[in-house]
Amino acid sequence: MKAIGYKVPGPIAADAALVDINLPRPVAAGYDILVEVKAVSVNPVDYKVRNSTPPADGDWKVLGWDAAGIVREVGPDVTQFELGDEVYYAGSITRPGTNAEFHLVDARIVGHKPASLSWAEAAALPLTTLTAWEAMFDRLDVAKPVPGAAEAILIIGGAGGVGSIAVQIARQRTDLTVIATASRPETQEWVRGLGAHHVIDHSRPLAPQIAELGIGAPAFVFSTTHTEQHVADIAELIAPQGRFGLIDDPKAFDIMVFKRKAVSIHHELMFTRSIYGTPDMNEQGEILDAMAALVDDGKIRTTLTRRLSPINAANLKTVHALIESGAAKGKIVLEGF
User: Fold this and answer.
1) pTM, full prediction
2) What is the C-alpha to C-alpha distance for residues 313 and 12, in angstroms, rounded to an integer?
3) 46, 96, 146, 271: least surrounded by Cβ within 10 Å?
4) If you compute the radius of gyration of the chain from its CA atoms, what whole number of angstroms results?
5) Cα separations (Å) of 29 from 36, 201, 225?
């Protein structure tokens, strides 16, 4: 089968950063299903792994987590899918990735593809949906009010992949006032179109802009990018006993600035359930099915902003470079081999 991989981690400009290769087609067993991949999207985790992680035992390292496709084989322990089902999912970081014609994935973390979306539109959603959903409902517990706080959530990086879906989920699944950040006119317009009640500029101090809104101190802050640049502002603007979640990888920040307000700090990694095989890992499939229902009901739209074809090394290198630049809006998808 066709696939794209590398043997030596390094910068995307290197000739061997991503290479077109051929690999044996895998076989489904246990809880796995074998998916014929129709479309994939690229996330920051792709370039972070490409920059840092060598393949095991000298084999090819295949990246890619988001995918949409068709079930072609079903393991004996699988009960929720049949041959021919259309699915979408974000795979496990501990297994070979989706940048291949056929991909093995544990059925428990797979959802039924939204019927109203194309392959590319569906492939834009899984990883960011799981990240945003888990961050808000499992980590920040936004359904539980913070006494005296404004019933509001600040989403830092509202125009990015996770931010774009987090804004929509917060609007559709909560009664919170949604404040999102974006710094350019086109990204500010994008975030407003997704449903943010307020948009502020993360290139300027955040706390004064929150104060100018006149709504009070937000109960929740969800930071998706450049967290280390905003820590002092977050500590100033968040409500006492508020909850602060983040998904990026700051080298360090001083958590003591949050002690006086008794702010709790929550990390979110949507791969945790599949890495550790947690007893509740099937919740990821349920989240994706819930998202599919929201999409098919017209309440949430895909965050796809650009598509390329085919899925090959040259196109993946183009997308990796763009994602790594930090200038991308929404999600970029590749489709077809």
Assistant:
1) 0.96
2) 11
3) 271
4) 20
5) 16, 49, 38
